Amino acid sequence: MAKKLVIIGWGFWGLRTFYNLAWNKNFDITLIDPRTTSSMKPTMPEVAFQGKDVEETRFDLKSVIEWKGAKFINEAVIKIDADNNKLTTNNKTEISYDYLVVTAGAKKNFTAIKGLEEHGYSMCDDIHAPKLWKALENFKWGKITIGSAKSTFDSSRVDIPNWIAPCEGPIGEAMFMIHRYLKEKGLREKTEMNVFTPGDVFFEDIGDDVRWAVGGLMWKRKINLLMEKVTTEVTSDSIKFEDGTEVESDLTIMIPVYFGQKFLVDSGLADKVGLLPTDKSMRHLDYKNIFGAGDLNTITMPKLGHLAVMQADIVSAQLRKEVGENIEIPEYKPEVMCIMWMGHNEAAIVLSDIKLGWKKDIVWYGQWQGFTKKMFDYYNISTNGKMPPKIGEHMFKKSIEIFGMWKK
User: Fold this and answer.
1) Which of 39, 218, 272, 290 is positioned for an S-S bond with 126, CB 3.0–4.6 A?
2) Which residues contact 271 (CB under 8 A, 6 or more apart)?
């Protein structure tokens, strides 16, 4: 008899798990999400800084899930009874499971910093990115400030790096793409651009070689960098920091504070900040039939789509092994691998694991890399959220290692 597998949340990682197992007759799959559409987050910078229609980044979840023979429930989970293998939704629907995969993603707290929701902007999702594009279109001259809020994480039960801005790639995309946009509009010489980080270094999850290369690109574009700046308030014309300093800002763009999901906290399954604590097999530390992948997983550091997909593959293999299949479980070896848009068909590809205990620290940028980014986005959207085949990822990484610059 097929095992009842429930997946909470879509995202890269939820859909990756679903697609990995949708064909498998050993599982009766249900996917639960309060949204009816999926939006591809890697395309949000294009929405925010190039005016891409946000509808082009979305696809209907229900039809995709049901076409594969699974069940889609358009509701929100409010409580998990882990001891009895069941959960409850906002419509009081009770759903039992044999295995539960939590891929709902971490949340961004736009109210944690005073004034951010009213006076600031973000490219983080399909609600905020279009608003940012409108603000950028209306910008004529002045000062633009871009940065990350300080986030805290719980390392009491798992071994994770002590990072406070665990993915600043979108900040890099924002500063380079805005620079290009302003230059094309003839506004760059009328604009002062400042980037800030709460950390003592910018891009704390990559090594000095890549950081030096990025710094050189910033210097060439006259983008200023402020470090150890913890935001306390955003106003209509400035941003204030914990150290008492204040920077004038006509357009403030931020990655907000990360925090977890309320239903995990209410269910007694969360760590101190609401994330899901797992081991490196992606199993919950206390309940072995509950798995987690993506930003919501405590061990996901940095908060990166590449790691989420890696974790989803581990979860899928674990589940197949649970039902008796002879399959090798992939090793969890975290690394930074991302494609950072720079505007004007250019992108930077980063592959770095030096801050995670290994040796790679590579960056490779130019127009070919921009073409690669476009092809990735096209494949991802046209296949309704699928990732490129594993062989493509392997060849992609090898090309970075061979042709990339500033490497160990």
Assistant:
1) 39
2) 154, 156, 157, 158, 260, 277, 298
Residue partners of 83: CB distance under 8 A and separation at least 6: none
- The verdict on 303 and 194 lying in the same domain is no
Whether the predicted pLDDT of 39 surpasses 90: no
How much is the pTM?
0.95
Read off the CATH number of the domain in which 278 is found: 3.50.50.60
Ranges 96-100, 344-348, 379-383, 385-389, most confident? 96-100
Residues 26 and 82 in one domain: yes
Q: Is residue 253 part of a domain?
A: yes
Listed in sequence order, the residues at least 6 apart from 107 whose beta carbon sits closer than 8 Å to its beta carbon are 258, 259, 260, 261
- Cβ atoms < 10 Å from Cβ of 8: 28
Distances (CA, A) of 93 to 9, 28, 69, 76, 316: 16, 18, 21, 10, 26
Buried b (16+ CB within 10 A) or exposed e, 204-213: bbbbebbbeb
Q: Are residues 45 and 140 in the same domain?
A: no
Is 230:241 a contact under the CB 8 Å cutoff?
yes
Q: Domain check: are 115 and 73 in the same one?
A: no
SS3 of residue 252 by DSSP: strand
| Mean pLDDT for the chain overall | 94
Look up residue 351 and give its two tokens.
């592959």
Q: What is the mean pLDDT of residues 20-48?
A: 94
The answer as to whether 184 is a domain residue is yes
Both 97 and 195 in one domain: the answer is no
Count how many Cα atoms sit within 13 Å of the Cα of residue 385 in the half-sphere of its side chain. Answer: 25
Domain that holds residue 245: 109-258
- Residue 406, pLDDT > 60, answer no
Please state, in angstroms and rounded to a whole number, the distance separating the CA atoms of residues 210 and 74: 42
3-state secondary structure of 373: helix
Task: Give the number of domains in the chain.
Answer: 3
Structure token digits, residue 169? 């790639």
